[in-house]
Q: What sequence folds into this?
C-alpha cells in the first residue's frame, strides 16, 4: 500500500522582525507606547531602553491569518505611527489653553442653568 501524500504542505512561517531605535533625549516614551498600541493586530512591539536610546523590537503577528508585511513595511508603518503620535502630543500641548477655556465656558453655563432652575 502506498502512503497517502499530503494535500497541502504547511510551511513554518518565518517571523518578520525589525528593530528601530530612537534617541531618548528627543523622543518621548509615551509616543512610542501609543504607536506600539496602535500596531496591535499587525505586530508586537517591545520597547527597551538601552543607554540613551529606546530600542523598539517589532515582530509581525498572525502570519497564517493574513498577509505578513515585510520588515521595511513594518518599520515604515511604525515610524508613521510614531510621527502621528508626536504630532498629536504637540497639537494637544498647543491647544491646551483653548480647550480649557471652552470647557470652563461649557461647564460654567451648565452651573448657571442649574442655579437658575434649582
A:
Amino acid at each position: 500500500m502506498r502512503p497517502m501524500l499530503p494535500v497541502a504542505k504547511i510551511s513554518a512561517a518565518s517571523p518578520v522582525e525589525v528593530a528601530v531605535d530612537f534617541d531618548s533625549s528627543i523622543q518621548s516614551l509615551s509616543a512610542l507606547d501609543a504607536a506600539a498600541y496602535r500596531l496591535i493586530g499587525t505586530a508586537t512591539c517591545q520597547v527597551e531602553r538601552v543607554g540613551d536610546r529606546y530600542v523598539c523590537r517589532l515582530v509581525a503577528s498572525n502570519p497564517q491569518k493574513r498577509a505578513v508585511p515585510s520588515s521595511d513595511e513594518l518599520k515604515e508603518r511604525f515610524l508613521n505611527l510614531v510621527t502621528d503620535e508626536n504630532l498629536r502630543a504637540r497639537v494637544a500641548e498647543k491647544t491646551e489653553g483653548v480647550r480649557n477655556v471652552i470647557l470652563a465656558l461649557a461647564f460654567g453655563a451648565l452651573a448657571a442653568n442649574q442655579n437658575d432652575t434649582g
Q: What stands out?
A: The beta strands are 17-23, 43-50, 53-60. The two ends are 92 Å apart (CA to CA). The chain has three helices and three strands. The mean pLDDT is 87.
